[in-house]
Amino acid sequence: MIYSDSENRFEYLNSRLGEISGSAAHFAHYSALPGGFLACWADAPGEIIYANSTLMDIMECQTPEDFLRITGGTWHRLVSDTDIAIISGSLLKWRDEGGMSSDMFHFVGNCPSDNSWKRDVELFCRFLRDEVLGDLIYFFIVFARDERDILTDFPSMSRFLKLSNDVESIIARTGEFPAMISFNLNGLKMYNEKYGISGGDALIVSFANILKKYFGIMNCSRFGEDHFYAYTPVGGLENKLNRIFEEMARVNEGNTLSVRAGIYVLDPEDAPLSSSSACDKARIACDYERKRHESCFVYYDKKIRNEILNRDYIIGHIDEALEKEHIQVYYQPQVISQSGKLCGYEALARWMDPEMGMVSPGVFIPVLDDYALTYKLDLYIIEHVARDLVEAIRRGISVVPVSFNLSRTDFVKCDPFTEVVAIAERYSLPRELFKVEITETTVMADINKMKGEINRFHEGGFDVLMDDFGSAYSSLSTLRDFEFDEIKIDMGFMRNFSPRSKAIIKPIVNMAKALGIHTLAEGVETQEQLDFLKVIGCEMIQGYYFGRPEPFEMALETGKRLTRNYEQMLCKSSSLVYSKNAERASDDGRTVVPLSGKPDQESVFRSIAGLFTDIISIDLRSNVCEEVVSSYEMHRFLDLGTRNLNQKLFDAVAALIKPEYHYRLMKFLDFSTIPERLQDVTSISCDFQNVVDDSFFRMELFSLESNERGEAVRILYTARQVDPDLITAEHFKTVTHALRHVYSALVAFNLEERTFTPYFMPVSMMERTGVTSQPYDLARNIFIEKFVSDKYKERVYRFTDLATLADRIADKRQLCITYQNPASEWCLLTYIPSKFEDGRLVQVLTAVRNLAHQKDELPVNLTDLQPNQQIWDVCETG
Questions:
Q1: 384, 329 contact by CB (below 8 A)
Q2: pLDDT value for 3
Q3: What is residue 20's DSSP assignment?
Q4: Which of 452, 512, 790, 872 has the fewest other C-beta atoms within 10 Å?
């Protein structure tokens, strides 16, 4: 029979009730319940007696026939087989106990609906003995429409946590331990970028369907994005996971993602344990192998548990450790590879905890990095380095630069540059004693920001080193895009010191040389490693071979030991006297001759031998040379007759280079001008092209001894091969490095293409004009609008007109104009011709100088440019 309630919604009443007097009104008061209500006979068939209209809504029944078709007229179809067994067993027990009033039973499950899928419901069940109808079962059914994930149809997180808490007790009664599994898709963010959000959602749905297949819809949930959870008995779990991985690999014709899974198996020792805690442990296990890209599963075990305990301890005690100085600064020496001379230290952190004992840096530093706390440690280390440097100076000990690490999160939580400057000034220490180490990972985390930060350190007088070079990302592109003073070759190459590692290290060192970047190898522990690095020209060494990380006092003793060894080596070397009979041939056919001279000069020669094809000491006063290393051709020319040494050297080199370089060579090797050219710089260089194979090589002249006027009287001539593709880049780097001492900005304007290319500029200007090539007119308008006062805007507009510039600057070495910036400071804007093609001026360099903040004078006179010269042709570098 079908009845309507007060809102004309239908209810179900079993037709058998008509045969029982007064029974029809028995359930009238249940129609107003806010939830679903179901009354059934407690006999085996479980026939439904009454169902209210709210239950019809939950089951989405449109007609009475729908309700009977879905339920079959029995409550058995409303709950799972497991629940049927539990209810039937409890019913027998209730009857055996005399049918007294029963407790309320609580179940979670799926209620069938007319849309072919089951609704998430809670069922409250109770047994009742009625004098008229006999033994009955009452069901109260509640459905929450908003507790499902819209995308996957899984229960929501809060719903899942409730469900898994109840399932735990049910599975425990079956004799199997339950397990919570956390799932994560590797690389969903990149997948969304490639296939779009809709493509990513489709992949999530596909994965959800696979989980439904193996665990059931009510035992799974998606907590957000690609974070899935499932709850299941542990039996056969690994086989299920492997099948899930296999099926996921075939989704979308293989355009899919791998899966990580973390498993937490309920430990009786942890009971009682909430499902939320179980999810946390499963997620920790899932993230444990987050760097792996293939599908895998990991169990939460004691090892992971101990790591979590350590993590919590570190986070909770880092402030105390810094305050009470449980963290100490250790120093590891760095030496010149060729001589063993001490040249620096790296400052490292060591945690000596009163409870935990020695806490490894490999344990606490990643934790601090994950929780953005490394800035506290790094600033603490820098502060202590400054204190120790001051103490060493007070004792009369010669100090060397100390490098320290800055983490990626340091640049988020504080301003490292300002902090380091403040520390250096507080202790009155020169900035040359501080070297900043930044890992490649830090640089790549925010490329644009880090370019500006590195530039700030350079402008502030600090060297910046790339740490762990070769360990991640694309190191070559990093060197291309960032200006580092030194690279530290990752110690991983030393751990696996194989021919393959050697084949990688050698070109790294050669490339760094060509770019003018210093090199240091970390992790050097054996003589074999040291010998190899010396041969390929790696400049500096750090590793256990020379010294372990040690506290301040012990590090000073190690430094003294290294200094004694170095001095003993010098004394031994100083006994070598030049003799024709002492000549010996090297393995590669070059002539190697012991050199007379002072011990410090000898160490210089020995430290660079092996890097150059020719090394010759020249006394400009006596016109006499001594060959340290020389090729056969050079040795043959220098040994000819009694001609002037200047002419001999020119003839030797001229025979090897292309004719178009002869005039440049004659000027470069002019002995009459070398003393003055080396007066204020340590070296000058010039590049030439070989006539035989078109390769490039570089000649450099170093000042070894000067007279009372500062003019060089003894020099070192060197020659070495260089990569032609890197020559221009290095020249530009040399020029811009020199120009930074005078100008605040340097840009190039191409007159024919009307483009603007910046070489360096202040951060404030960079943020407005950009750091890449762009149309000249756009850059010009931005510059004048933002950096020129209103009074001088029109004047600067006329001065920067490229249409008339070529005529105005003709036959001039430079063109200048003064103006005021918005802060009323006087500035100088200079145009310098920098590139000519077929007599046409095609490019000018534009330099901006703030006259209110003048710096040291440029060590190169840029106005000496000739119309057919590039700017770097006249730049002699120190």
A1: yes
A2: 55
A3: S
A4: 790
The strand order across the sheet containing 105-112 reads 2-4, 10-13, 48-51, 36-41, 134-143, 118-130, 105-112
Contacts 24+ apart (CB under 8 A), 385-388: 385/329, 385/347, 385/434, 386/423, 386/424, 386/426, 386/427, 386/429, 387/427, 388/329, 388/331, 388/552
Tokens found for residue 105: 């039973």
How many Cβ atoms sit within 10 Å of the Cβ of residue 760? 20
The span from the CA of 377 to the CA of 768, in Å, is 35
396 CB-near residues (< 8 Å, 6+ apart) = none
Q: Please give the helix or strand (H or E) that residue 168 lies within, else none.
A: helix 157-174
Residues of the chain with pLDDT under 50: 6, 116-117, 474, 570-610, 770-772, 854-878
Report how far Cα 745 is from the mean position of its chain's Cα atoms: 29
Yes or no: say if 522 and 495 are a contact pair by the CB < 8 Å rule: no
Give pLDDT, residue 573. Answer: 40
Q: d(Cα 474, Cα 494) in Å, to the nearest integer? A: 20
Residue position matching structure tokens 């000491």:
617
- Residues constituting the chain: 878
The pair phi, psi for residue 592, each rounded to 5°, is -115, 120
In tens, the pLDDT along 690-713 reads 765 667 778 888 888 888 888 888
Identify whether 354 is preceded by a cis peptide bond (ω within 30 of 0).
Answer: no
Q: How far apart are CA 684 and CA 877, in angstroms?
A: 5
CA distances from 813 to 745, 808, 834, 868 (A): 19, 11, 10, 12
Nearest by Cα to 685 from 714, 659, 722: 722
List b or e across 112-148, with b for residues whose CB sees 16 or more CB atoms inside 10 angstroms.
ebeeeebbbbbbebebbbeeebeebbbbbbebeeeeb
Structure tokens at 627: 């060959």
Instruction: Give CA 20 to chain center in angstroms.
Output: 79
Residue 428: burial class (beta carbons within 10 Å; 0-12, 13-18, 19+):
exposed
The enclosing H or E element of 499 equals: helix 499-515
Question: Which tokens hold the place of 49?
Answer: 């007696």
The pLDDT value recorded for residue 733 is 56
In three-state secondary structure terms, 531 is helix
Q: How many CB atoms lie within 10 A of CB 676?
A: 12
Q: Which residues contact 328 (CB under 8 A, 6 or more apart)?
A: 349, 350, 351, 352, 551
User: pTM for the full model?
Assistant: 0.48
Q: How far is CA 698 from the centre of its chain?
A: 36
Whole-number pLDDT of residue 390: 92
DSSP states along 806-826: HHHTTT-S-EEEEEE-TT--E
Calculate helix-pair angle for 361-370, 374-394, nearest 10 degrees: 130
592, 629 contact by CB (below 8 A): yes
Torsion from C-alpha of 790, 794, 796, 799, nearest 10 degrees: -170
Evaluate whether 845 touches 736 at the Cβ level (below 8 Å): no
Which residue in 669, 680, 776, 772 sits closest to 718, CA to CA? 669
- SS3 for 401-421, per residue? CEEEEECCCHHHHCCHHHHHH
What whole-number distance in Å separates Cα of residue 813 and Cα of residue 832? 6
